[in-house]
């Protein structure tokens, strides 16, 4: 057993019992290996270090109200990693191997899944890297896949709260026909500069616009964006947006609640017409937006009083968390119980 203070967990790495690894060489994947070693030995000319041939995923396991441990939509994360591998010309990991690796990481670290009452969860980080040694810019036909985990606290300690968002056109997150639609590490590297600037100014996230015309909403920090108005759940559609599994789940729940779901280009001018708005992703599920400030126009758009979570955001959040924590029937087949 461990001595973790479950009530004061942040979102950071804590060591656990084991991680899982596999290697691709000579056209085949190795069997999964289990180790307590937290380090990777790597040649200095390994291709992932020089040319960004790296993709990753993020998902969670939850200890439910009934004591059972559940992985949430692990198959969707496996499919998305396959999509990332294809675009980066890395070897694809079979879906059953991905699911087994994640399952075993949870099973063999079961004591690190936080108790239900804590509101915390076990975060999993599957990673795929090109491991071919060389100095030429080319595809890597050798790779390493690994999964580690860490218990993490609830995103909103003390309850869900609206965040402040800024629109800053100084930096683009991803270009059309680039790698914005896959979960590659380089996409996040390109957001650090503007993100740090936003935090210095007192904002939680940067709202990124399309790189071509700077007219359409793309993502909000490292999360997808959605807006609520006139009984509709509206989320941007673009070839440079990462297909969020949380957003996909929320769209299904929105339809189940009777909302009309629209995936389409969302012009920045439409922000003022939304009744509610939010960012969605694995870490927070939903981060309701209190207000958006546009640096260029100096326009401030406030949702409600800017301090209170909107009714639709709260209902969507509760419905998704109810499935994740076993408080409601999983009629969509999204969870995988870990025995």
Give an account of the 3D structure:
This protein is of the alpha+beta class and 339 residues long. It folds into 2 domains: 6-152, 2-Layer Sandwich (D-amino Acid Aminotransferase, Chain A, domain 1), CATH 3.30.470.10; 163-319, D-amino Acid Aminotransferase, Chain A, domain 2. The chain contains 7 helices and 18 strands. It has helices spanning 47-51, 74-88, 95-108, 185-189, 192-200, 245-256, 311-324, and strands at residues 19-25, 28-29, 33-35, 54-56, 59-63, 69-72, 121-130, 143-152, 163-167, 205-209, 217-220, 223-229, 232-236, 260-264, 276-281, 285-294, 299-302, 335-338. The longest helix has 15 residues, at 74-88. The relative contact order is 0.15.
Key structural traits:
6-stranded mixed beta barrel; 9-stranded antiparallel beta sheet; alpha+beta; 7 helices; D-amino Acid Aminotransferase, Chain A, domain 1; D-amino Acid Aminotransferase, Chain A, domain 2; 18 strands; 29% strand; 339 residues; 2 domains
